[in-house]
Write a structure and sequence with these properties.
alpha/beta; 4 strands; four-stranded mixed beta sheet; single chain
Length: about 375
């Protein structure tokens, strides 16, 4: 144990020699979580809307006021001709353009159907689709209100609504996207920080030419490997506490589940990330090569295939089985389930077992590879 402690102390001293590492290890995760917590959002609000009012009547102004009062739209400007729409969409000053025809008030007053034209910038198909849905819902609600007003004005009772939907959202009742994104960001940051740090463990000795000196010291291979990884495990646990604290206190993300289960599964997840970093370290000759290998061949595929950005259910059927090879997939399900749903071992045990299996497999592969490197 004393030899193991000396190896750990040596690794900590090497980290201490680079003052920038302190900011990377402890400050960068908090800053990245804060920035991504605000930037990584799928909420569509304050959509810039261009009004093409060719009618200029009280009826058209009443419709425009509905859009102006909605939190989902912001009136970007008003023009009188459809030909003036293109410059607004091309420059990104407006996402949508609502065209009100010149005979709009006559159709409304006469009880005839009135046609509105909605022109959309489809560059961002996801956000545009959501915004178009908001616009369609607003117009439909306004149309039903006008129909009731006409019937009441004619002396008829308004027909009762045939179907009334009462929607209740159990998890994330306010439908805040950051509640969904930030737990995933926690998992992503731990992957990036701990994998990059541990990937420097062995390759640094190669680059400095001290690997041969370690081979002749009276320490076993397991003592060298464990002594190099344990400091990063401690750093990873500290980062877990930091980022979870920021998520709870700053972003007010609810932690409905067990904090103990969250930390235990985070430890299993760190086993996977540290093993992955050790494996990268054994197949690389320089620290720069280790960084590039980890980023392009491991971290980027995990980011795209884990379900953090793109839902796995929407991926092609050929790609979906590949996602089972991504450990990040299981931990994202675990951390989101503990944070937002409050579920525990009885529900999450398949993901926990799969994550543990991948952690053991990756560490075993990394240890086997490191033995060949150190011999």
């Amino acid at each position: 144990m004393r030899r193991l402690w000396y190896v750990m102390w040596k690794e900590l001293l090497e980290l201490r020699q680079d003052p920038r590492l302190f900011s990377i290890i402890f400050i960068a995760p908090v800053i990245q979580l804060t920035l991504l917590g605000y930037a990584a959002t799928t909420d569509v609000k304050d959509v810039p809307l261009l009004i093409v009012d060719q009618d200029r009547s009280p009826a058209s102004r009443q419709l425009i006021s509905r859009f102006d009062a909605s939190p989902y739209f912001s009136i970007a400007g008003t023009v009188g001709n459809v030909n003036d729409v293109d410059p607004w969409l091309e420059r990104g000053k407006a996402w949508l353009a609502l065209t009100i025809p010149a005979d709009y008030h006559e159709a409304i007053d006469g009880g005839r159907p009135a046609t509105l034209q909605m022109i959309a910038d489809g560059t961002d198909s996801s956000s545009t689709g959501i915004a178009m849905g908001y616009a369609a819902s607003l117009v439909n609600a306004y149309n039903q209100e006008l129909a009731r007003q006409r019937m009441l004005a004619a002396g008829h009772d308004a027909p009762p609504t045939a179907i009334e939907a009462r929607i209740r959202v159990w998890f994330n009742p306010e439908l805040e996207s950051r509640y969904f994104m930030i737990p995933g960001i926690v998992a992503l940051l731990l992957l990036v920080i701990t994998t990059n740090l541990s990937s420097m463990a062995v390759v640094r000795e190669k680059e400095l030419g001290t690997l041969e000196q370690l081979n002749v010291t009276p320490i076993t291979r397991w003592q060298l490997i464990v002594g190099k990884l344990l400091p990063y495990a401690v750093i990873g646990l500290i980062d877990v506490v930091l980022v979870i604290t920021v998520a709870l206190l700053w972003f007010r993300i609810p932690l409905l589940g067990s904090p103990v289960l969250l930390f235990v599964t985070s430890g299993i997840y760190l086993l996977t990330t540290l093993g992955l970093g050790l494996f990268i370290s054994t197949i690389s000759d320089t620290q720069q090569q280790a960084m590039m290998t980890g980023t392009f061949f491991f971290l980027t595929p995990m980011l795209y295939l884990s379900g953090f950005i793109f839902p796995i259910e929407n991926m092609p059927a050929v790609i979906q089985p590949v996602t089972y090879l991504i450990p990040l997939r299981y931990f994202i399900v675990i951390v989101r389930g503990i944070f937002l749903k409050g579920i525990g071992w009885s529900v999450l045990w398949p993901q926990i077992v799969a994550l543990l299996a991948w952690g053991i497999a990756i560490v075993g592969l990394a240890v086997a590879r490191s033995r060949k490197t150190l011999n």
